[in-house]
Structures are given as C-alpha cells and as structure tokens.
Amino acid sequence: MPFSVFGVLARLGLSALATYSGQSIFPLAYAQATGCLIMGFCLALKEPFSRYYPPLYTALTTGFCGSLTTFSGWQLDIFKSWLNVGNAPRSALSDVMDGLCKTVFTFSISLASLLFGMHIASEISPYFRPAPAPGKSFQRFISVLGVCTYAATLPAYFLLPRDYRHRATSALLFSFPGTLTRYLLSTLLNTALPAFPLGTYTANASGTALLGTFHVLQSTTSRVLSPASCTVLQGLGDGYCGCLTTVSTFAAEIATLKTAAHKYRYALGTWVTGQLILVLIVGSLVWSGAVGKDQTCSFD
C-alpha cells in the first residue's frame, strides 16, 4: 500500500520536474528509467532481500517500481504523437518519427537502466550484509503503518487544496487498487505460459484500454464534464491505470525470458496490442469527429 502511493508520487513528481519549455526528452522517460534502475537493483539482490523480509522485496518491485513506471501512459504518449496532439507545425512523417522516438527510446532506456541497476547491485553484493529478520511485533507494526499510510490518502484528498486533487491526491486514492489488480493478475496468469508472461500482458493491455477510455471521456466535445468528474478521471488514469500497468516488470521479463524469439515476441506483441487498443478506442472516435484530439476537461 505505501509503496504504491510513493511510486505514484515519484512518477508525478518526476514528470512535473521534467516538464518545461524547450525540454529535450519527454517527461515520462525519467520515471521509466528510474523505476527500471531500482527494479534491476532489487532483482540482483532478491535472495538477501527475501531472506531478510520477503514483503520488502514485493513492496519495492511490485509496489514502488511497478507504480513508478507505467505502460499505459507510455502507450498513450506514443499515440498522441501519431495524432499530433497540440497541432505542432510539422509533417505527418515527423509525427511518425516522434512516436518511433518515444518507442525506441523507452525500450532502450528501460532495458539499459535495468541492466545498470543489476550491475550496481552485483558490485555491492559482496559487502551487503542484511540485518537480522524483523520480529513479529515489528512486522505487525509495519503492516499497520502501511494500512494507515494508504488510509491517509482519503483525508488528504479532501483536506489538501483543491488544486492538488487532479495533480496528485486523486491519483493516490486509486494507486493501491491498481497495484493489487496487477499483482493478482500476475500471480494467477504468469505461470500459464512460461514463455509469455500472460498476467503482466493482461494487466498492461487492460490498463491501456481503460486509460484510452478515460482519455476519450476527458476529450468529449458534445458534453463538457464537471470539474469533479474530470478530477476523478484524471485520478483513475494516473493512479489506477498507472499502477495497473508497468514498464519495470515488463522490462525485467523481457530480460529474463530464455530465448531471443521469446523476448521479441513478448516485447513487440505487448507494444502492438497497446497501440491497436488505442486505435480502436481513441483513434476511431477522433477520426470520426466524435471527440477532439485535445482534452476538453476543466479542473476549475
């Protein structure tokens, strides 16, 4: 619970820091790279982490890294490049190049960060001496603290300034449900096909479909939504979909699949699925004129 919340906060914070006039790299790249770096570090130290306190490993990888990185946000970002959302003065070829840039760069930086994180862990592992496992009382305290941390997101939504709702606090409310859904899908389905992690694939595909739906609702031109509805949709997109989908686990699975054929099939199959889903949900409505390319939602 708490690591899902912290992962969303880190993603939103990094994206906000990286959004400025004249930026050279798209903002989401920083969150993807950071999450994959930490994921690689944890993967290489899985045995000592698990020996010390197994839930800590799950919290760092599934909770924090899985929530810090987002597959659905990446896919929608790419699709916005194809559509040229913002109507930048460029050609159709430039639209294609922009989408390909976000695709190739994210694949590259994610896998490179994952391997670099594993390298850092291998360098320090000879000096890594985990402390004795925590006692039962401390474990119960940590569990209660985790529940209280997530429970605090509800009063934070209402008590903090209204401007924070669409920026952060709405997303925090939906963070843990998204992470829990991904965890359950992975637990139930990933063992079904050893050469194709079906659970993560299902989580990434369904999260992309939901995010595309929320984006369409936020871009409708026939009926303007209320600020409260727009805030909830933004929270569902950033929080639930952002935590339901993950690039860090996706990259880790690509790196650990046994053969090159399995790696390419899983990587390209997941990416193509995400783009086809957005073509059906977002593209068909934009090209028919039912919704606009830009969001019409207002948070004021």
From TrEMBL:
UniProt membrane topology term: Multi-pass membrane protein
Catalytic activity: fluoride(in) = fluoride(out)
Principal subcellular localization: membrane
GO cellular component: plasma membrane
Location relative to the cell: Cell membrane
Keyword entries, A-Z: Cell membrane, Membrane, Transmembrane, Transmembrane helix
Any single Pfam family the record assigns to this protein: CRCB
Transmembrane segment boundaries: 28-45, 100-121, 141-160, 266-290
InterPro entries with a match to the protein in the record: FluC
GO molecular function terms noted in the UniProt entry: fluoride transmembrane transporter activity
Family of this protein: Belongs to the fluoride channel Fluc/FEX (TC 1.A.43) family.
Role, per record: Fluoride channel required for the rapid expulsion of cytoplasmic fluoride.
Protein name: CrcB-like protein-domain-containing protein
Organism: Mycena belliarum
